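Appendix B. Raw example, untouched.
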Amino acid sequence: MPLEVESSLSIEKTTDYIWQIPRTGDMRVCCRIYADSHTIEELLKDYEEKVRTGGFTPALRQLINVATLPGIVKASFGMADIHPGYGFPIGGVGAFNMDEGVISVAGVGFDINCGVRVLKTPLYRKDVEPLKEQLANKLFRNIPCGIGSTGEISLKEREIDELLVEGASYVVKKGYGLEEDILYTEEGGCIKDADPTNVSHRAKERQFRQVGTLGSGNHYLEVQWVEEIYDQEAAGAFGIEKEQVLIAIHCGSRALGHQIGIDYLSTLEAASKKYSIPIRDRELVCAPINSKEGWQYFTAVNCGINCAFANRQAIAHLARLAFAGVTQTRPEQISQLYDVGHNTCKIETHNVDGSVKRLLVHRKGATRAFGPDREEVSQRYRAVGQPLLVGGSMGTASYILRGTQKGMEECFGSAVHGAGRSLSRMQAKKQWRGSEIIKELKEKGIVIRAKSKSGVAEEAPGAYKDVDMVVEIMHRAGVNHKVARLRPLVCIKG
């Protein structure tokens, strides 16, 4: 039976882990949410009370608003980590046909191609435990982090343009990383249709000294160990085993990506009026994909995607050097598992109602999660599906998942990106002190190094949903599949 919330909204439970808001009014498609009963209760509570979490419209309202946009196909999707964002919910997925569909800043986010890269070390937990403090100090010294941080790579505008086109390959050519890293980076670390002429001088200027910097907020570098293996076949393909030590890097396109978003808000707002696009929320300003304005923004986003790939590539190089220096390993012994982003819009082919269609898929705080046999997946992993790198929060678990065929059929091969916030940053700072969080985590064997105690409070583990629950929902729904569970040893924060 549908759960009635108010005259304009009902939610139907279609399986234990899939809920649906039927298409009504000006909705062009239904909304589909991957959730358990508890998650739905929390989402409905915010909706009924019209709670603006952290200043944002409730996530269910945002999901419905996305369902009204021109050209959207199948459904407006909410992953299990769904929470309010700017226009689109975070954990939101919307795919649009290329003829009638639109492109929106809100569907990408301001940290374009924020994502996770995981490196595999040849060491195990027992080897690294005695070196945690030394390792934390070395990583914190070597990897620039925090608001406005600058890296050792200094570029002029012409060089920035090259980086925005070439992505990770640009910094590999400069000696930052290994050639084989490119094989295990989504899109080969370089997405096509990137046009630097559609990126403002101001955006480029803000990036001149930020390549190879971690930033602040929820970005981090963690040294982790593999606590549990759930899928031996996939783990074998990914080259990971129990107790092995990994390095996870979570960051994006830094100031350049943010400036691209700011620059194009006004462009797409004008386009929404010019093309008479009906929108429920001014945060959803958009342009037709094939319009001049839409294509300009799309090619600028691709520049941001390549910038983020390059940034994580440079950080990975610095992390290898720091880790090797402390543990007496060689940098080339630290190989790359995968790098995947979660704030993107990409042109992809998918089966829709029995026909293969080219679609522009927006994933806002959601990860591409292609299943077996897709040519976009690295050859080594193609038989089992793409690795998915799901971050937790300080003191909790992270996960490695894989894409499935069911996920391809149901939600355009998409996945969660992390635990998802349950409290805003402001709420978290009112509830916790950074120094207390650092002390508590140290008692649990986790070493924290951070530029800002306030930033630590914002990212307190209690400010996030239960990552185990979030991952379990996607696993039981069959759209993502659990491979391994990871625990932190060292966490570096901005």
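End of appendix B.
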